[in-house]
Amino acid sequence: MKQGEQEIEWYKALVDNSSEILMIIDEYGNIKYISPSVKDIAGYDSDSLIGVNTFIFAHPDEVDYIFSKLQFLLENPGVPEFIEFRALHKDGHWVEVEAMGKNLLHTPVKGIVVTMRDVSKIKKLEKELRRLAENVPFGIIVLGDGGIIYSNKEAERILGYSMEDFPSLEEISSKIEGEKGSFISKMKRKDGKEIWLSVRYIETEWMGEKAYLVAFSDITENLLLQKRLESRTTLLKTINRILRHDLINDLTAALGMLEVYRDLREESPLSTVEKRLNDAVKLIKRMRELEVLSEDGKELKEIRISEIVGELRGKYDIQISLQGDAVVEADDALFSVFDNLIRNAVVHGNASLVEIKCTQKDGLCEIVVEDDGSGIPEDKLQKVFERGAKFGKGGAMGLGLFLVKKLIERYGGNVRAEPSPKGARFVIQLKGRVT
């Protein structure tokens, strides 16, 4: 046998025993040659298909699609083109097929060469994996060089994007290094809301190309709960420190005065004892107010400022004016905020007038509380909300203002002390509306 004939036999044996189908068609889609492996994949004898038009075996829904691919091959000689379609099996069911075609009509082959393989099992597995991916409680995306290749419904729910309008996710892709890993990343949803994600990824392959399978879950609420827990722990430590230090000091002083009274039988130590015990009682009452900050699960509700002011007018023998009114998101403990501010104005500032003004500013309700008392020194303004800060008549401790700040922060707002020519001035910002 000549060398040329040996090569032909070698190639024929290779094609005949390949698990893939090799097919040559003319420019109209008629079969000029098809390898015997078509029997294993589609159930037909290869000889019976010579001269048959391939469109006979195409699914009705895909005829136009396949025709467009044939047109592309005819217009682009030598350029390979990938195609996926369903082919009719001899027994009547449809076979999922992947094919690669190349126009060699201009060569001695004088035909369009198509290689095909059965991907039915792969497609079935892919559908099952997609079904599983759509039912897991975390987001899944596949990242390729061109961006997002796949996303499940949970990923779209978490981020607010549909598959068609997903952004580049630079926040995630920029942190992917190596074959696998995990990290926490801040993302912005389509609606603008910022969320925190716990992300895990692994390198994989998608359609023969390198890609990354990325799974993530929204941990924003968990981080908020953790922050609340840390805040509560700090608060409890503060309460413990106050009780250990201030209360013990008051009671120790009272006991000392009782010893003096026992020894001298004088009345003067009794007034000191009374004052110290009253201070201790006030401190315990203040601790009850602080307990509010450690409570969890209380939902905020709408609180009207004028109702709080009405109660306070009956409690203090000073003039309290209100300009405007507002409804803010808080709870019943908001009363303690204004109670503490007015108490400080009276006790430490010797005020006779407190003015409260409600306005809308930067999307928040701004409430200014200003008195005509002695005010707060400018060098104390930045520290006035700290536990243990002292100012005003008698240099009393600033536990009330510490409570004010913690409560306002609990409502998602902020409070600050500002310089004022006529007394103390506090500015509170809360979610709400002026009415």
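(ticket continues) Second input and output from the same batch:
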Amino acid sequence: MNTKHLLRPAALLLPLVILAGCPSVGNVPQAGGDWHNMGEANNGNFMLAVDKNSIKRDGQLVTFRDRKIVVDMKEERFINVPPYKTAINNWEIHCGNKTFRLTASTLYDDTGKIISDEKYTAVDIRPMAIPPNSLTEEQRKIVCAH
């Protein structure tokens, strides 16, 4: 597998682990859905929301979408991903094992144009333990209670 494709998911996962509490930002791709604001991080430069309409449960495995918005692209360092304004990511969380993994990611520029659209298998990205007291843990509580 291409190293670039391995590093891109890791770059998308890092902000998710540190995010927490989000106001809304205008003029970003909504991609439909019922977006529940989750938090902000990186001195308020990242904002995250979960699409409650996307939550699907199959036993202990739950899939859902989230949306990450970069408030000021000039203030952000983009490592292993193209500079983007909005990321809409698909996730799997195993409620019993408390693990998560990225299954797909679509990145949009500041005009709403898609600049990257990737899908990941369980071989590409293995499930990882959900860190305690993280935004991912807050997401787990929401989606596993659904």
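Agent notes: Residues 23 and 37 are 7 Å apart (CA to CA). Residues 14-26 have pLDDT under 50 and may be disordered. Closing as not reproducible unless the customer responds.
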